[in-house]
Design brief:
By secondary structure, this protein is α+β, with helices and mostly antiparallel strands. The chain contains eleven helices and 18 strands. The strands form five sheets. It has a six-stranded mixed beta sheet with strand order 1-2-6-3-7-16, with helices on both faces. α2 packs antiparallel against α11 and α3 packs across α5.
Length: 433
């Protein structure tokens, strides 16, 4: 009797959930969801097809081949497509752009990228299915997100909801290592943003510690810095004395002072490479270097290559000022200089971004998929959306869920393709009404 009662209660609860879903979505939205769920196998097949093409950033042919595969999908959906070539000296494949002109609702810019961190010859498996998980090169970062864009738009197309919409899609070919100068490699993206109202980016969806889905309303800016230290060369017996402390001790002083004194929430700085000795050489193109020195000689030179990540420009300015002050407090017999170079601008947490998140969360709840929480800005690295976020309301993290991005264990939760496509399609539908 108790078992029967439990089963009845479970059925009643399921019926309530289904009713809630129906009540949260209008008839067209219910059709959109049904289309996505009915074509989930085809979405996974498209993902597999794209992943089996190596598209490491420097594999320009592979990036173009993935672009051609996705371009065909957009052509079938009635988009006008084009491939943007970058100057040959940039050694990047270029970008895929698909546009649809109309006169209804918000003008949307949807962002993805075609490249991965896995170059040809990588020993990471291309594609391995294991139940509800797929492991492979770029499955979650971010070919899964690209497929979600396509499947969301395909469902909208099937129910006639794309008619009259104003949507631009840009899949870049060098997100993992953007070509320089970025004013060129991201110039077309900025131009599209200036003609749009809302930007949505489909980098992977991250679950918080409670297992709740999140979206990204802010990302930290990235910059690089270089520390150059000089000192008097001499016999090691005179270190700490007439010949001073040498370049290596001065470098250690500076870096440890940074660690102890340049502290703010959301601010990080990472010295990724240090070379010191009496002869130092560094190749910026390959990020490799050599150093020569002897234990009985005081080092006369040291160099540090590092990054800096910050939430906003005031935080950047405070950090750089304090770092310069520390660098100037030289040990005897040494001198040092520091130089900063901007890379990705910050994606500030704005009221507009939070408003888009609120709509996205409402869509998810109406579809019975739960609320969406904001992800702390420091929980993500740099991304393409940062180039357009200063210009329009933006939201990121609408892609597939997985683990181990950029590692041999990168994987994807197969069910997240359907869930994220449902959320994305409904969000696009409501934004373009």
């Amino acid at each position: 009797m108790r078992k029967m009662t439990g089963a009845l209660l479970a059925l009643a609860a399921l019926a309530c959930v289904q009713t809630a879903r129906a009540e949260g979505l209008d008839p067209t939205e219910q059709k959109i969801v049904a289309e996505i769920r009915a074509h989930a196998p085809q979405a996974l097949a498209l993902l597999e097809q794209s992943v089996l093409i190596n598209s490491g950033t420097m594999n320009t042919r592979g990036v173009r081949d993935v672009g051609a595969l996705f371009r065909k999908q957009f052509d079938e959906l009635g988009f006008t497509t084009r491939w943007i070539d970058l100057p040959p000296e940039m050694r990047r494949a270029g970008h895929l752009v698909a546009t649809r002109d109309g006169n209804r609702g918000k003008r949307l810019l949807l962002l993805g990228h075609l490249d991965t961190v896995f170059e040809p010859g990588s020993d990471v498996p291309m594609w391995q299915r294991d139940g509800d998980k797929v492991r492979g090169q770029g499955v979650s970062d971010m070919k899964g997100g690209d497929v979600i864009v396509i499947e969301a738009l395909r469902a909208l197309h099937r129910v006639g909801a794309l008619d009259g919409t104003r949507i631009a899609v840009m899949f870049t070919g060098d997100e993992e290592e953007a070509g320089n100068p970025k004013s060129v490699s991201r110039g077309d993206m900025v131009a599209l943003a200036k003609r749009s109202d809302v930007a949505l980016s489909f980098e992977g969806s991250i679950l918080d510690k409670n297992g709740q889905a999140t979206a990204t309303v802010g990302r930290r800016a990235t910059a690089t810095w270089e520390l150059e230290v000089k000192a008097r060369q001499g016999h090691s017996m005179a270190v700490f004395g007439a010949n001073g402390y040498g370049a290596v001790y001065e470098t250690a002083r500076i870096l440890d002072a940074f660690r102890q004194q340049v502290i703010e929430p959301g601010l990080t700085f990472n010295p990724g490479l240090i070379l010191g000795g009496t002869e130092v050489a560094f190749d910026g193109a390959t990020s490799r270097g050599t150093a020569f020195g002897k234990t009985n000689v005081i080092a006369n030179t040291a160099t540090v290559k590092a990054d800096l990540r910050y939430l906003d420009y005031p935080q950047r300015d405070r950090a750089q000022a304090r770092m310069r002050d520390i660098v100037a407090q030289n040990l005897p017999g040494t001198s040092a200089t520091i130089a900063f170079h901007e890379s990705y601008p910050p994606m500030a947490v704005t009221p507009g971004n939070l408003k888009v998140l609120d709509l996205y969360s409402r869509v998810s709840q109406d579809a019975g998929l739960g609320a969406i929480a904001p992800l702390p800005a420091e929980a993500r690295g740099a991304g393409d959306i940062q180039f357009v976020a200063p210009l329009l309301d933006s939201l990121d993290g609408l892609g597939a869920s997985g683990n181990g991005a950029h590692s041999p264990n990168e994987d994807l939760d197969v069910g997240s393709i359907e869930r994220s496509a449902v959320r994305a399609a409904l969000l696009i539908y409501r934004l373009t009404r």
